Amino acid sequence: MDLTVVVTFFPLPQDRGDPIRVLMMLRALARARRYTLFVVRRPETTDADVTRLRVLLPGVAVRDFTATPYRLDRLGPLGRYQESLLDGVPPWVRTRYSHQLHEALRTRAGVGLAIGEAAGVYVRDTPLRWHWDKANVLATSSRQDVDEAVGVAQQLRARYLARISARFEREALTGCATVSVTSAEEATRLAREYGRQADFTLPSCVPLPDGYVARPVAGRLVWLSSFSYRPNLLGLHRFLADGWPRLRAAGYTLELVGSGLTEPVRAALGEHDGLELTGWAADLRPVLGRARAAVVPLWSGAGVKLKTLTLLAHSVPVFSTPIGREGVPATDAVRTADTPVGLAEAILTTTPAELDRMADAALSLVRGHFSEARFADQLVDSLDRLGQLGTVDSYEGT
Asked: A Pfam family for this UniProt protein (predicted)?
């Protein structure tokens, strides 16, 4: 039985959570059996990136596609929104859509694995038996965006996106045979929104950093996220406004690390004292190695957060809101508070000896629950149990 895997966001570079999870899945599958990968390039993807992906996935036939331009792009946002409405997909999904890829899928047979929310668009009108691996339930997360929207324009946009996202998600779920989510909380949301039970839960995973030595500096905190994802930035600003002043007065510094740091964002964050705006770091080891602890101030979002797992894999104690630690079992590695002031208080009252114990617990947690090997076993076993890997012999890629 043929296996076709579809990814709508090229997984290199590993500059945010989605590409990290995607590449983990692709590598895990490559060790279990052969498959064909259909992947949509980002605008900045190069031929060298495609070649590198092929090297990382031995035995996998990689077919890359470019996204199809909007037909109504000449009309600007008005045209793009109108077109996405006619197509029944959210604008961000339409931006990653390749008509050529969709047509190629119509000639495939066997099983299809759609990875990520936007890949659900290919479930429609294709003859494959589909499994959809979902990072989050769009109907729930898009309603959170409505609650956070400020002003009439943002409210209207958020409400439109919430409606079309739920419509798109419902149709895709109807077309797929099986579905997986990243946490028990997400499984509950899926059942509540659509009356659909998740066939299995597949938490994300992170690699343990090679050659990593932690040399934490007292009073040095780190924030790790994509600046371009609105809930991340809203949470950061809320923490800086209400929690950070106490920590800064106590002598703490906070390094901000992640992709998407634009000049307007940099200027807005520059109003706060004690921040180091690093932005994108190709190698996180020296950055996280000097952090005494990390803060994950999130009040919206869903699923297991790759940022939280990445911090834990680098033995960094994490202070997080409940949403930031979703899917992470009870552990000494993470301390939780509901408010910015609560996060600051938790950091201030944690002793150096307790931070050391948190760091040790962080590494143990990732090794036991979120390692690549464990992820691979869970993914392959779950798909095999559902009959989604077919009956061909497994093999070990070289």
From this structure: Glyco_trans_1_4
**Is-contact 257 287, C-beta < 8 A?**
yes
Under DSSP, is residue 121 helix (H, G, I), strand (E, B) or coil? helix
Residues 364 and 377 in one domain: no
Residue 338 DSSP symbol: S
> What is the rounded radius of gyration, in angstroms, for the C-alpha atoms of the chain?
21
204-224 tens-digit pLDDT: 888 889 889 899 999 999 999
211 lies in a domain? Answer: no
3 state SS of 95: helix
| Predicted local confidence at residue 308, as pLDDT | 94
Residues 6+ apart with CB under 8 A from 373: none
- Does residue 23 sit within a domain? yes
**For the chain, what is the domain count?**
2
What is the extent of the structural domain holding 169?
3-205+372-385
Pair 85, 197 in one domain:
yes
Residue whose C-alpha is closest to residue 295's, from 258, 352, 337: 337
361: which DSSP letter? H
| Same domain (yes/no): 17, 158 | yes
CA 33 to chain centre: 25
Cα angle 250-252-254, degrees, rounded to a multiple of 5: 150
Is the omega angle on the peptide bond into residue 231 within 30 degrees of 0, that is, cis? no
Going 398 to 375 to 281 to 294, the CA torsion angle's sign is negative
User: What CATH code is carried by the domain that includes residue 158?
Assistant: 3.40.50.2000
Identify whether residues 32 and 105 lie together within a single domain: yes
